Amino acid sequence: MYPQPIERLVTELAKLPGIGRQTAQRLAFHVLRSEDADALALADAVREVKEKVGLCEACFNLAEGPRCVVCEDRRRDRSLICVVEQPADVIPIERTHEYRGLYHVLGGALSPIDGIDPEDLRIAELVDRVGADEVTEVVLATNPTTTGEATAHHVAELLRGRVTITRLASGLPVGADLEHADEVTLGRAFAGRQSVG
Amino acid sequence: MVVESVAVLDLRNLAACEVELGPGLNLLWGPNGAGKTNLLEAAYMALAGRSCRTRDDREAIAFGKPLARAEAVVAASGQRRSFLCSVSRSEGRRHLLDGSAASPESAALRPALAVFMPDRLALIKGPPAGRRSHLDGFCAALWPGRTETKRRYSRALAQRNALVGRIRAGAADPASLDTWDHELATAGVELIADRREAAELLAPAFEQVASDLGLAADASLRYRPRSTAADPASLAAELAERRDADLARGHTGWGPHLDELLLEAGGRSLRRYGSQGQQRAALLALLFAERRALLADGRPAPLMLLDDVASELDSEHRSLLVEHLVEGGGQALITATEPEQLPRSAQRHEVAIRAGRPLTAADRGRIRGGEAAA
């Protein structure tokens, strides 16, 4: 229907998550209409991200070079490792500026339904790191979902007795009204209540 | 919380009509085939967003019509809300609260629903799965914060079964079952505890109501879990013991997903040995026991939708039935072929139905010739 190069662009765009064929066509024609410099800047950005960004060889976070910025940073506390599912999970924790340790990105969570076994995650690498470095505490920050909890349990079992293992607490969002909390979150918050007096 | 009216369009034999309801007992009466049960179904559909009689909601659409609609107006603390369910042959089902799509949370804005219909007898005489999910539904009504337990258990079970399949196919390591045994056991122990607590709340009321309705005096309700494990570690150990059998079978053969809510009379299972009459009485007793447990906890009484309950009860038991219905307030819709089938009670609103058209007492006085306003 379209000239072959446009058809190719539409097909490639439609592979992106959340983009259907209709939207892909709209985007393709937008690219076609835009200035040469703008369109080529997009192509360049895609090429650059694929060429320059890889995974950190120590923690498997996103990295420009062999090590990520966190692992390169000499001021970080090397006795602490925070275990997360995806590189995207590092960003919200970094935004808090509360955590000064290192990370370990597993690359997913255990899910037999999706065919994800322990060997498919970077669990063995985590065990090696704990054995080799001066690590004293591992913080499990996998998602509070069935697969995330199972992954946390699996990792905790492997590391039991070697280091202190902690799990992030779950409860109420700070600054939000109690009346807007859902029953499940509120129920968890009750179960995990703490003494203040 | 009161359902003030139910409006219907082209639902089975009901054309366009609206019925006003009283705050207490509502008697829908008329000859066989008049559309009494269809009106109960309409009330259920409007509030719950699906039919209580069929899985294929399109069955509820009147012959030759494109869509069926049921709307209920619920008044609570000075506010009126409209619950509307429509089923279209071409576009399927929609459930709206005040014109926008109803969410699971909107269930809190309407009364809970308790349905007695011949189709519902499967709950008593069918396999345990129906009773389990009914008990889980009751747990969810009692403790909305614990609904996640059941979901978490189901997800862990699906993952464990998938893993069992992968191990059988040689694609995964049997040792990886440890993780999922733990996850399943953690949620499983909580689920067993919730169900046990709910069954203990229901048992005394079930025995009382069952005896009042003429079911055996020694009727009983109890939760019978497979596992007696008190903590996740023991349930996980029980799962580990049965691992070889699970691998041979291809799925998980131990845990609360196989438990039974046992209903008995005279020490014998009502499911297997109960007569039709006993099974009907047991279903009623279960619904009333839940109603009592909710009331005792300070919750609003559920809306009782009772189809043809009076026909098999003698006059003494009918009086007791009405007493139970009036106790604690709340609304009920009951169908009968004759108004005399139900003993008079203080608060009673009658709706006569003829050939798919309801006539309220007021309508009959107001409209000449007995034709109801559409």
Can you describe this structure in just a few lines?
With 197 residues, chain A is an alpha/beta fold.
Describe the protein in words.
The complex is a heterodimer of chains A (197) and B (374). Chain A has 197 residues and is of the alpha/beta class. Chain A has a domain at 78-197: 3-Layer(aba) Sandwich (Dna Topoisomerase Vi A Subunit, Chain: A, domain 2). In chain A, 43% of the residues lie in helices and 14% in strands. In chain A, a hairpin with a 6-residue loop joins β1 (53-55) and β2. In chain A, α1 (4-13) crosses α2 (21-33). Chain A is globular and about 70 Å long. The N and C termini of chain A lie far apart (73 Å). The model of chain A has no long low-confidence stretch (mean pLDDT 90). Chain B has 374 residues and is α/β, with parallel strands linked by helices. Chain B has 2 domains: 1-112 and 303-374, P-loop containing nucleotide triphosphate hydrolases (Rossmann fold, 3-Layer(aba) Sandwich); 124-299, RecF/RecN/SMC, N-terminal domain (Glutathione S-transferase Yfyf (Class Pi), Chain A, domain 2, Up-down Bundle), CATH 1.20.1050. Chain B has helices spanning 36-48, 122-125, 128-142, 147-168, 177-212, 232-241, 243-249, 270-273, 276-296, 315-326, 361-366, and strands at residues 2-9, 17-20, 25-29, 67-76, 79-88, 92-97, 100-101, 113-116, 220-224, 260-265, 268-269, 303-306, 332-336, 348-354, 357-360. In chain B, the strands form 3 sheets. Chain B has a 6-stranded antiparallel sheet with strand order 2-1-4-5-6-7, covered by helices on one side. In chain B, β10 (260-265) and β11 form a beta hairpin. In chain B, α3 crosses α5 (177-212). The relative contact order of chain B is 0.17. The model of chain B is unreliable at 367-374 (pLDDT under 50). At the A-B interface, α7 and α8 of A face α4 and α5 of B.
